[in-house]
Amino acid sequence: MASSSWLPVVVCALVLLQAVPAARAARAFFVFGDSLVDNGNNNYLITTARADSWPYGIDTPDHRATGRFSNGKNVPDLISESLGSEPVLPYLSPELDGDKLLVGANFASAGIGILNDTGIQFANIIRISKQLTYFEQYQHRLAKLIGPDQAARVVAGALTLITLGGNDFVNNYYLIPYSVRSREFSLPDYIKYILSEYKQVLRRIHGLGARRILVTGVGPIGCVPAELALHSLDGRCDPELQRASEAYNPQLEVMLAELNAEVGNGAGGNGPVYVGVNTRRMHADFIDDPHAYGFASATVACCGQGPYNGIGICTMVSSLCADRDQFVFWDAFHPTERANKLIAQQYVSGTTDYISPMNLSTIINLDRHLHD
């Protein structure tokens, strides 16, 4: 039986998520990255990295798969709620047109990484360089709608989220024993290499006009059910993958500080452009002590097969849990909607241990004059 001590935490989280002023609905939101933030772009691609069939989306209002790798909402959806806005549409959606462009766009694509050779097994995914090309296309479309000057103001005043890095370890360096990248680089040198590549990506996003950019670190990749199924007999996280994220995240923080020193202040001259999000710490809270947050399991996925339900993908023939709220993980890699809500709350009101140098509530307050 799960502990009842989590109730105040969840109630507080839901209240605070709804408490950020809805008046910020006019602020656009842009999303770049991988499956943790993809909300349906891969539905429009011929690829195996898709979440467009049941039981994905089982807890949405119409119980249908949306392309999100979740039973319901993902973190971008919950951030949109905190902005007082509707969820942004996938860039490839034919519905993204007219006034919908003013809300922003989601360019993310499941399977990608910082490096172009990450996720090659999935084929036909939108690599980060292509996502940025689409961002340029989006701005041309927006300029046709509202004029170039106003379009530039929308982009500069927007919130941007980018989530990359996990696949560069899970689906590249550690994908198979003696992978090409692991033979080419020691782990410390690989981390330096991908961060140098990431730095160029982040510079380009700024060069394309983004002025408030949330950059997530790599989560506890050694603790996901897929890795437990491969490496763990007792439910303990894989130490080698954990070592990778432990080494990567502090260096990412240093790199973001360097970028902030390069570009100066963000939107309206208030505070930094780049904000670091410690997703490893956010996940670790309820992986380390799931019962304190009302979860029955932080090792077994709700949907899947094999040990820890961590083998293969979630399909209609998979083992499926009855109560998704009891599980940290929805499938072999991705959190449930309720876990996403706890993660999103740390974006909104977390201390600098979770999001630094300031959280989303502070950003919204600082940038309020840009949207008044």
TL;DR of this structure?
The chain is of the alpha/beta class and 372 residues long. It has helices at residues 7-19, 75-82, 128-146, 148-156, 166-173, 180-184, 187-207, 225-231, 239-263, 279-288, 337-349, 360-366, 368-371, and strands at residues 29-33, 104-106, 159-163, 213-216, 274-277, 303-304, 319-320, 355-356.
Structural account:
- By secondary structure, this protein is α/β, with parallel strands linked by helices.
- It has one domain (23-279, 357-365): Rossmann fold, CATH 3.40.50.
- The protein is built from 13 helices and eight strands.
- Helix 1 packs across helix 11 (337-349), helix 2 packs across helix 11 (337-349) and helix 7 (187-207) packs parallel to helix 9 (239-263).
- Mean pLDDT is 91; it is low at 1-25.
- Taking strands numbered 1, 2, ... along the chain, how are they ordered across the largest sheet? 2-1-3-4-5-8
The name CATH uses for the topology is Rossmann fold
Average pLDDT taken over every residue? 91
CATH architecture: 3-Layer(aba) Sandwich
Globally, the shape reads globular
Q: What's the helical proportion of residues?
A: 40-55%
What percent of residues are in strands?
Answer: 5-15%
Largest sheet: 6 strands, mixed
Cα distance spanning the termini: 48 Å
Please identify the top-level CATH class: Alpha Beta
SSE string, helix = H, strand = E? HEHEHHEHHHEHHEHEEHEHH
Care to count the β-strands? Answer: 8
The chain-level structural class is alpha/beta
Q: Which residues sit in consecutive blocks of at least 5 with pLDDT less than 50? A: 1-25
Task: Tell me the radius of gyration.
Answer: 19 Å
Annotation field: number of helices: 13
How many domains make up the coordinates?
1
Keywords: Hydrolase, Lipid degradation, Lipid metabolism, Signal
Family: Belongs to the 'GDSL' lipolytic enzyme family.
GO molecular function: hydrolase activity, acting on ester bonds
Protein name: GDSL esterase/lipase
